[in-house]
Design a protein that fits this description.
This is Carbohydrate ABC transporter permease. InterPro entries: MetI-like (IPR000515), MetI-like_sf (IPR035906). By secondary structure, the protein is mostly helical. It is built from 13 helices and no strands. It has two domains: about 45 residues, no CATH class; about 220 residues, MetI-like fold (Orthogonal Bundle).
Length: about 270
């Protein structure tokens, strides 16, 4: 009896998680007038190509996807490099004020992101980067949580292992590349998924920093489809479904490393 109860609960949770995505995929294949009709249409329609074509005409889907992918990859790669280097310095180097700087870094985790919008905008505007991709990428390179995660994970690597590589003549960058990164691969994969998810779905800062429609990212471009009197939800559903695909693909590719990284972070003291 207990086994059937557990199966029922898991099936209900699975339905709650997968159900909205299934309805989204089905709605993307129907005309705008059929999406909210009653009873709901939980079967594929024949309007997917038409909705996709209208979406391409409305926002330039291919260009917008390219913008979003470029910004998300650049933000993720840059933030991982900065987080790894900063975490390595905090974990393995001794320098004056190390603990103080680390405490100050951690204190920034409690600051709401919206508080920094105006200062960041002023900085980007002063150096002439507003309405450019660097305005989206540069403020996202320093991620306090990423530095904290790297530092805590690097503390588990024995100093003797790094010293042995140095004795063999390896410099710090070679030690990092040959010794540290292979050990840290699961944690790096987990961090990459989190960072890419945040960059791909970021809406507020691109909305503020970008003014040229040709440079819009996907969340901002989809928001322009919302009309005052009428909204073509067929286009919105197609765009939303497309925006969900990269994260699913990325997780499927990195799921082994992602889960290993989470378990490593949970078991290391």
């Amino acid at each position: 009896m207990k086994g059937w109860t557990l199966t029922f609960v898991l099936a209900a949770v699975f339905g709650l998680c997968v159900g909205p995505f299934y309805w989204l995929a089905m709605a993307a294949t129907h005309a705008n007038s059929d999406i909210f009709s009653w009873p709901p249409k939980f079967y594929p329609g024949d309007q997917l190509a038409a909705n996709t074509a209208k979406l391409e005409e409305s926002i330039g889907l291919v260009n917008v996807l390219g913008n979003t992918l470029f910004v998300a990859v650049a933000q993720t790669a840059g933030a991982i490099v900065v987080s790894l280097l900063a975490g390595y310095a905090f974990a393995k180097f001794q320098f004056a004020g190390r603990n103080l700087f680390f405490v100050l870094l951690l204190s920034t985790l409690v600051i709401p992101g919206g508080v920094t919008i105006i200062p960041i905008f002023e900085m980007m505007n002063d150096i002439g980067l507003i309405d450019s991709f660097p305005a989206l990428i540069l403020p996202s390179l320093s991620v306090p949580f990423g530095i904290f995660l790297m530092r805590q994970s690097l503390l588990a690597i024995p100093d003797e292992l790094l010293d042995a590589a140095r004795v063999d003549g390896a410099g710090e960058l070679r030690v990092l590349w040959r010794v540290v990164i292979p050990v840290m691969r699961p944690v790096l994969a987990a961090l990459a998924v989190f960072l890419f998810l945040g960059a791909w779905n970021d809406f507020l800062w691109p909305l503020i920093a970008l003014r040229t429609p040709e440079m819009y990212t996907l969340p901002v471009a989809l928001a322009t489809l919302q009309g005052l009197a009428r909204t073509d939800f067929g286009q919105v559903m197609v765009g939303t479904a497309i925006s969900s695909l990269p994260m699913m693909v990325l997780f499927l590719i990195l799921q082994k490393q992602f889960i290993s990284g989470l378990l490593a972070g949970a078991t290391k003291g």
